[in-house]
Design goal:
Elements: H1 10-80, H2 100-109, H3 141-148, H4 153-165, H5 170-183
Helix pairs in contact: 3-5, 4-5
């Protein structure tokens, strides 16, 4: 070890700067790199998790607020007479299953109006709050399925139509079809 007060030649100072410092830095980096990587990974992961939670909250809150504003705007437009106060009458219901050629002809003539069962959907409730299952909009598919058995045929049909017009969750639609088949 050199004494600090000792004078060093310009050649020794240049060797320290050009050769020994980079070698020492490389050796230190080799020893410290794994711990630096872990520290960086931990910081990035925690920040990403926080950003994800905040983002989900912001999107959910924004969707709720947008729905409230849209509902209020529709009410104001109805009050001003710009929109009709009474929604148009629903199309007449067709039998759930049509036989052979009649079903094919109907599907070709009006493909957009038929649902997955080959029938015209009834007027779906405009809001999940109008359904027979309280809090429907906030429930997962498995939670909805558990509540379907206690509904009447009309209530099942309303849930089916609402689900077809919104999220189209197959688990719910399949359970409704099963319950409707058992009821006939």
């Amino acid at each position: 070890m050199r004494i600090v007060s000792e004078q060093r030649s310009p050649l020794e100072q240049t060797l320290d700067l050009v050769l020994y410092a980079p070698v020492g830095l490389a050796a230190a980096a080799r020893d410290e790199l794994p711990s630096l990587v872990e520290r960086g990974r931990g910081l990035v992961s925690s920040q990403a998790a926080i950003a994800k939670v905040v983002g989900r909250f912001a999107v959910t809150t924004g969707q709720r607020e947008a729905a409230k504003v849209a509902k209020h705007a529709a009410k104001v437009l109805v009050d001003l007479g710009v929109l009709p106060a009474v929604p148009p009458a629903p199309a007449p219901r067709r039998p759930a299953r049509l036989a052979g050629a009649e079903a094919a002809a109907t599907a070709e003539a009006e493909p957009a109006r038929l649902d997955a069962h080959g029938s015209v959907p009834s007027a779906a409730p405009a809001d999940a709050d109008d359904l027979a299952i309280p809090g429907y909009g906030a429930l997962s598919a498995s939670q909805v399925v558990q509540r379907l058995a206690g509904l009447s045929g009309t209530e099942l049909e309303a849930v089916r139509d609402y689900e077809l017009g919104t999220r189209g969750r197959r688990t719910i639609l399949n359970k409704i079809a099963q319950l409707q088949a058992e009821g006939t």
